[in-house]
Amino acid sequence: MTKFLTYNVNGVRAAARKGLVDWIQASDADVVALQEIKSDADQFDWGEFRRIGYEPYIYPAEKKGYSGVAILSRIEPKKVDYGCGTGWIDEEGRIIRAEYDQCSFVSVYIPSGSSGDHRQEKKMEFLDFFSTYTRGILQSQKNVIISGDYNICREAIDIHDPVRNAHVSGFLPEERAWFAQWIGEGWCDSFRQVESGAAHYSWWSYRAGSREKNLGWRIDYNMISDVLSDRILGARLHPFAMHSDHCPVELQLNLSLND
Is residue 79, in this structure, part of any structural domain at all? Predict the structure, then answer.
C-alpha cells in the first residue's frame, strides 16, 4: 500500500510555523504533493523534511513569494521533471512530476481566475494545455496520479452555495465542462469513489468564520488514471489540519512505487 497526500499549504514557511512538518511526519504518507509553497530553496530550510525522511523536490515560481509546487518523497523517484516546457506556466511554478517504477506522480497548481478577467483567461489557457499534457503522460505510463489544487469545484455537491456561486471563478460552467470532459479522457476522482456525500470541502475563505461553519469548496484532488480505480484502499480529507486555508487530501492505493 502506498499513501499519497496533496496539500496547498498557502506558504510553506507559514505552514511550518503552524506545525506542518510534524503533521506530515505523523501522517505516514509516502509521497506528498505541495502547492503554493511561496518559497525557493533559499527562503525555507527544506532540510526539515529530510530530517523526517522525505526528499524534497521543489519547483518555485520565478516571482518571490508566489505560487510554486513541490513533491516530498520517502522513495527515490527514477526521474523528476521540473516544469512542463511552457513559458508562463513554468515561470509560475505550476507543475512538477516524479517518475517511479510503477507510476507517474504529478503535483499541479492550476491558476485561480478570481482576480480578474485576464487571470481567468490564463486559467482557461492552462486547462487547454493541461488536457494535452496529461494525454501525453497516459501514452507513456498507465498508472498516473495527478494531485493538487485544481481551483475548480466539479459538481454542486462540492460547494456550499452552488446557486450564489454559479458565476464565480472556480464554479463557472465552462470550468466544470472542462473537468467533465477531461475526466472522460481516462481520469477518476478518487475521493468520490469512496465518499458520495455532501459537505466535504478542502478550502474555506478566511472571511466570516467560513471554516468553523464549514462553508467551503472542494477544489483539491487526487485524480488517478482509470486503471487505478480498483486499487483504491481509502480516500479522505483532513479538515482539522489547520496549517492553511486548504486541508490535506489523502489517497491510499494498492500500489508499490518501486518493484
Answer: yes
Q: Which residues span the domain enclosing 85?
A: 2-253
- Is 259 inside a domain boundary? no
β-pairing verdict for 69-73 and 31-35: antiparallel
**Three cell numbers, residue 126:** 492552462
C-alpha cell at 216: 467551503
pLDDT along the chain (259 residues), means of 10: 98 98 98 97 96 98 96 97 97 98 97 90 98 96 97 98 96 98 98 97 95 98 98 98 98 91
User: How many domains does the structure of the chain reveal?
Assistant: 1
Alpha helix locations (H) across the chain?
12-17, 20-27, 47-50, 87-91, 117-140, 173-183, 190-194
258 inside domain: no
3-state DSSP assignment of residue 138: helix
Residues recognised as catalytic: 149
CA distance 154 to 150: 10
Taking the C-alpha atoms of residue 75 and residue 179, their distance in angstroms, rounded to an integer, is 31
Q: What angle do CA 183, 189, 191 make, to 5 degrees?
A: 170
Among 152, 194, 149, smallest CA distance to 169 is for 152
Q: What is the CATH number of the domain that holds 70?
A: 3.60.10.10
**Interstrand relation of 144-149 and 104-109 (parallel, antiparallel or unpaired):** parallel
List strand residue ranges (DSSP E) for the chain, in order: 2-8, 31-35, 55-59, 69-73, 79-82, 95-99, 104-109, 144-149, 187-189, 203-204, 216-217, 220-225, 232-237, 249-253
Three-class DSSP category at 158: helix
**Predicted TM-score of the model (pTM):** 0.97
The pLDDT value recorded for residue 114 is: 83
Residue 61 lies inside a defined structural domain of this protein: yes
